[in-house]
Design goal:
The complex is a heterodimer of chains A (464) and B (494).
Chain A (H helix, E strand, L loop, with lengths): L1 H14 L4 E16 L2 E19 L2 E7 L4 H15 L27 H4 L3 H17 L3 E17 L4 E16 L8 E8 L7 H14 L9 E7 L1 H15 L2 H6 L19 E3 L23 E5 L2 E2 L6 H7 L23 E3 L7 H6 L3 E5 L2 E9 L4 E6 L3 E5 L2 E5 L3 E6 H6 L1 E12 L7 E17 L10
Parallel strand pairs in A: 7-12
Antiparallel strand pairs in A: 1-2, 1-4, 2-3, 4-5, 5-6, 7-19, 8-9, 8-11, 9-10, 12-15, 13-14, 14-17, 15-16, 17-19, 18-19
Helix pairs in contact in A: 1-2, 4-5
Chain B lengths: L1 H4 L3 H9 L6 E17 L2 E18 L4 E6 L4 H19 L15 E5 L11 H16 L5 E19 L4 E18 L5 E6 L6 E4 L3 H6 L5 H12 L2 E2 L8 E6 L1 H13 L4 H4 L29 E4 L20 E6 L2 E2 L6 H6 L8 E2 L8 E2 L3 E4 L6 H6 L3 E13 L5 E13 L2 E7 L1 E6 H6 L1 E4 L6 E10 L4 E9 L2 E10 L5
Parallel strand pairs in B: 4-6, 9-19, 10-17
Antiparallel strand pairs in B: 1-2, 1-5, 2-3, 5-6, 6-7, 6-8, 10-24, 11-12, 11-16, 12-13, 14-15, 17-18, 18-19, 18-20, 20-24, 21-24, 22-23
Helix pairs in contact in B: 2-3, 4-6
The chains are: A alpha+beta (464), B alpha+beta (494).
């Protein structure tokens, strides 16, 4: 957005400081959240933010304001300038990004229909969803969000970038009870264009999963072959990217990539790429990072071999390499951080999830995961979590029955080493924490995945 | 408070009072000031100050709610935000079958301010940075196998004014802080072990001033956590040591706090139990028909929701619906007796709100949040409890956390454990985890340490809602013992 960039540059000029970086962002979010079959939380949100960093030599300080006005930004620059005098020097800091930073072609990220969606339109789109789920005899829950994001980055060394994108996200649940457990089905999609979301199809999918999930049997904890839908696999892939791919974790020695560049650490069918420039509708990321560095496509794992690490300018400088454009956009002034924003897992060859299921004699088909945590033993990517919204037993290549939710605890890298099937089709999975809003993954099949517990299928009153 | 009182918030209410379909409205102005300081491996990783201000307007129209926010707190900006919130409420009301029931209540008026001795925003920046920098340098001074060390300090001040069509007008100022550190040791084989103080993942928080940082005293604990991180590299993996996979477990106070958070705090949120939080966090096994009937824990388990605990991160004067902060039991003598609730959700059960609606900043709508959800202390010291345990494990400082969408099946891993044999700590164990079902676990609680071991912990980043909201909450806890819990090691495939 040219207005934001102009504001950045005006503020830089007026502040008159030698070494400054300004990041301005605005988000306009129409957020319609429904539950129990009613649209109970419908919000029109405006989220403006200005984050400035000022360097006094190698002393760096940051200030944030929610006021996107020249005076407020200049004031923030002056505050950061005053603070920088008291900050110890940052070894390896070589200044903010300059005009010599390479640039590239802006990937398509904007849809007018999303940007112009009104509260009335969101309600009109959701009305048949709520009606359809109720008609199926279930309770509905979910979200339809239409978002317009604008960001501009400018530095006193001449970086000047701006970008506008839109994101439309739909998540829907069909539930046997509104919040007390029982059968549940989920579906969701994300796209830059709200018109491209097929709300009816996603709703039918959620209803079908919920219907099939009724009257679950019990399945004991144990080691099972597992087929995971993209929505389930995405949770694990995102955690792997978080604990493994960024330079700070590699430098600390906690990443599974630390000291293993060029080494095979998982199965040769596994290729993981940070792909922020993806031009297809599955790409949602801003093409430059918070430092104004143009992002690059970085292979992280190629056929199971560690190939890449994500850097910002500081960590790159300390490691004698170039930034990969992986300084994450500031989120309300939170810590400057380095990491993945658009993780894509390479597809396999299976024509469908059914084909993956066909190759399982006895195993578990998982639609979605809940509360995954990858901090148990990051060096081996040991993770734990639970199934949610659809968990089924596979017997002799077919889904035989619904089962109650299971807890898994296993190394995802070791699980991927036993991965022998992925679908050709991949899906963009909306996530709450990813800067781009989605990860792109296929369905996967892993042999011998360890499930170490199960939930009670129904809440159990125990009496006094 | 004078600046807050001068804000033209009534302009938004005036705008809404003119609309015949508005049943209730509240306007909340929030100004936030933050400071984030972080030093890693001897260099500043983050020195950031922040400020934001704006208004959130929530309107109850003919049938349902609308919410809008703006960073423009001028009269014109307020009126515009009010009109947008009303437009959203009207749009949503078109497809709302059951009108929201929102009982009226008397207006609240008054002020609240965090009691503090030293205003952290007046302490020189260099002094605060030096405090955490000293700790990092002391940790790194140990040399190999210490690979990395980090320390941080954070301050937040919220100034908030709430006005409503009921006549509520409250002004509140909160000052929250926290600091902590961790160290990572890595051996030649690449194994990494981490130790944190006072807790991990963001550390312990409080509501108070800079005087609280002095009590944390990072420097006094650097040697211990560095020693433990190094010792863990050579420690045996935690194991049950029996075919049942079960062992008696003593949890340290901070881990009891997190256990309360995940397995009592969240499931007693009435919006979850009634199904309003499915899109992110899930529901709750604590359904209304179990109120007063479900034996949640053993008879010594007493859990309370207290928004009045001095220094607690969940302490306030009034919630964001104007309900005064109070004190109420959630689990009494082991029996599940009440929820954390709002005016709307409590009304659904014919009850009164327990006053727990809070929003993260001005740009989010209020939702039910934990206050200080605490476990009442029992008797004796931690060493008394260890001495009373024949064969068990003492587990300390959280490393990972996970619980199912109804808050029944949980699993936590921690940074370290000690084996207990015949009343004595014997050997250090690494990568411990324990897992169970909420009610089975709390029913197995047979000892809770006394007031001398009880501490009010603060969590600054409890996530809930969609879009995500972060909130400050508190948990008072003492070390406690749980019989025959499933334990294991997260390291190594078994």
């Amino acid at each position: 957005m040219k207005e934001l960039l102009g504001l950045c540059q005006d503020a830089l000029r007026e502040a008159g400081e030698a070494e400054v970086e300004v990041v301005l962002s605005t988000k306009q979010r129409g957020f319609a959240r429904f539950a129990k079959g009613e649209l109970g939380q419908h919000m029109q949100l405006e989220e403006p933010s200005a984050v400035v960093r000022v360097a006094d030599g190698r002393r760096i300080a940051e200030a944030t304001t929610s006021r996107i006005e020249r005076e407020a930004i200049v004031l923030a620059i002056r505050e950061a300038r005053a603070a920088a005098r008291f900050v110890p020097e940052t070894e390896g800091f070589v200044g903010f990004a300059g005009a010599d930073e390479p640039t590239g072609e802006d990937p398509p990220r904007f849809a007018r229909s999303t940007a112009e969606a009104t509260a009335e339109e969101r309600v009109d789109r959701l009305a048949p969803v709520l009606e359809r789920v109720a008609k199926a005899g279930f309770f509905s829950a979910g979200v339809l969000e239409t978002r317009t994001s604008a960001v501009a980055v400018a530095t006193t060394r001449g970086v000047a970038r701006s970008h506008v994108s839109t994101t439309a996200t739909f998540k829907v649940w069909a539930l046997e009870t509104p919040g007390a457990g029982g059968a549940a089905g989920y579906a969701g999609a994300v796209h830059r264009d709200v018109e491209a979301l097929d709300l009816a199809a996603e709703t039918e999918r959620a209803i079908a999963i919920c219907r099939d999930s009724r009257d679950p049997g019990s399945l004991d904890a144990g080691t099972y072959d597992v087929v995971m839908e993209p929505a389930a696999a995405a949770e694990l892939v995102e955690w792997l990217a978080t604990i493994a791919s960024a330079a700070p974790e590699v430098e600390q020695g906690t990443s599974p990539f630390a000291g293993r560049m060029g080494e095979r650490i998982t199965g040769d069918g596994v290729t993981l790429v940070e792909d922020p420039l993806e031009a297809s509708p599955q790409g949602l990321a801003v093409p430059f990072d918070r430092e104004g560095v143009w992002r690059t496509r970085v292979p992280l794992l190629e056929r199971g071999v560690v190939r890449g690490v994500l850097y910002d300018r500081l960590y790159a400088g300390r490691s004698g390499t170039r930034s990969t454009g992986s300084s994450l956009m500031p989120d309300g002034g939170s810590a400057t951080s380095v990491g993945a924003c658009a993780v894509h897992m390479a597809p396999g060859t299976a024509a469908s999830v059914d084909e993956l299921i066909k190759g399982v004699d006895r195993g578990v088909y998982v639609c979605r995961l809940h509360y995954v945590n990858g901090l148990l033993e990051p060096r081996r990517a040991v993770m734990t979590g639970l199934t949610r919204d659809g968990c089924f037993l596979i017997e002799k290549g077919k889904i035989s029955r619904a089962v109650g939710n299971l807890r898994f605890t296993d190394s995802f890298l070791e699980g991927l080493a036993r991965c022998d099937g992925m679908t050709r089709e991949r899906k963009a999975i909306p996530t709450w924490w990813s800067e781009a809003g989605a990860s792109v993954v296929p369905a996967i099949r892993m042999r011998g995945f360890r499930f170490n517990g199960k939930s009670q299928e129904r809440p159990q009153p125990a009496g006094k | 408070m004078h600046a807050l009182e001068a804000l033209p918030l009534d302009a938004a209410l005036d705008e809404l009072r003119q609309a015949p379909d508005v049943r209730y409205a509240e306007v909340r102005f929030v100004e936030e000031r933050t400071e984030h300081l972080r030093v890693r491996d001897g260099r500043p990783e983050q020195v950031a100050s922040g400020g934001s201000r704006g208004v959130g307007v929530r309107v109850l129209g003919a049938k349902t709610w609308g919410f809008a926010c703006s960073n423009d707190a001028t009269e014109a900006g307020l009126r515009q935000a009010a009109r947008r919130a009303l437009a959203v409420a009207r749009a949503s009301s078109r497809i709302t079958a059951n009108a929201v029931v929102f009982p009226a209540r008397p207006a609240s008026r008054g002020t609240y301010e965090t009691p503090l001795a030293i205003d952290p925003f007046t302490v020189p920046l260099e002094e605060k940075i030096a405090e955490i920098d000293r700790a990092v340098r002391a940790l790194l001074a140990r040399g190999k196998p210490i690979q990395s060390a980090e320390a941080w300090m954070e301050w937040t001040r919220f100034t908030k004014r709430l006005v409503s069509t009921e006549g509520t007008d409250t002004c509140q100022t909160f000052t929250y802080g926290g600091c902590g550190m961790h160290v990572i040791a890595v051996d030649d084989a690449g194994e990494a072990q981490r130790r944190s103080y006072p807790t991990s993942q963001g550390g312990d928080g409080f509501q108070g001033g800079y005087e609280e940082v002095k009590k944390v005293d990072l420097l006094a604990h650097t040697d211990r956590i560095a020693d433990e991180a190094i010792a863990l590299l050579g420690a045996a993996p935690c194991s049950a040591g029996s075919s049942s996979g079960k062992r008696d477990v003593i949890l340290d106070s901070s881990q009891v706090g997190l256990q309360i958070h995940e397995s009592c705090g969240h499931p007693t949120e009435l919006d979850r139990a009634l199904g309003s939080e499915i899109t992110l966090a899930g529901g709750s096994f604590l359904q209304p028909e179990l109120l007063g009937k479900l034996r949640y824990g053993s008879p010594i388990v007493n859990l309370t929701a207290d928004a009045t605990s001095p220094g607690g991160m969940g302490t306030f004067g009034w919630d964001d619906e104007g309900v005064p902060g109070g004190h109420s039991p959630l689990v009494q003598d082991g029996l599940f007796v009440d929820y954390l609730s709002s005016r709307e959700t409590a009304a659904a059960l014919g009850r009164e709100s327990t006053g727990t609606m809070r929003a993260d900043g001005y740009a989010r709508t209020p939702i039910i949040r934990m206050v200080n959800v605490s476990l009442a202390p029992g008797k004796g010291t931690l060493e008394d409890l260890v001495a009373d345990t024949k064969d068990g494990i003492y587990i300390e400082c959280n490393k990972s956390w996970s619980i199912d969408d109804l808050r029944q099946n949980f699993q936590f891993s921690c940074e370290l454990a000690w084996e207990i044999k015949n009343g004595k700590r014997t050997r250090l164990l690494k990568d411990p985890f324990y897992t169970g079902i909420t009610t089975d676990f709390w029913r197995s609680c047979d000892a809770i340490c006394g007031p001398e071991e009880w501490k009010l912990w603060g969590i600054a980043n409890c996530g809930k809602g969609d879009p995500m909201q972060m909130m400050q909450v508190g948990h008072g806890a003492a070390p406690a013992r749980f019989r025959q819990v499933t334990v294991g090691s997260s390291g190594g495939r078994s």
